[in-house]
Specification:
single chain; 4 helices; about 140 residues; mainly alpha; about 0% strand; elongated
Amino acid sequence: MSATLSTGVALVFVWLGMVLAISFLEAPLKFQAPGITIPLGLGIGRLVFRALNAVESVLAVTLVVTAAVADDWSRSVIYGLIVAVGALALQVLAVRPALSRRTAAVLADPENVPAQRSRAHLAYVACELVKVGGLLTAGIALLL
């Protein structure tokens, strides 16, 4: 296995693990913990997802650079990475600002928390699912 290939495998699966652990495990579970209110959960989520997206951005840039110098990556790997990086870009540039506005409104007036999740939240989850698909595609293709 070449250095770029092993680096790519490691980076893809670290990124995938972070997304699965935080978005699909920590995020929903935190609201089930005793004493966690919606405003408190949103405040924690804001910090956690800002950090997650920052680390994801570093991983994405590192993977793009690694892919640029690799000579043994298939089109499946590249397409999977394009999907994952595109979903991350959409989240950071379009969806997170809308979520931040809603979180700020809830934190400013915690007594009037909307009963329904925002459409931006659903869009963020949809992007996470797309990102997971892209990362799985890239990771599996790197191993084949």
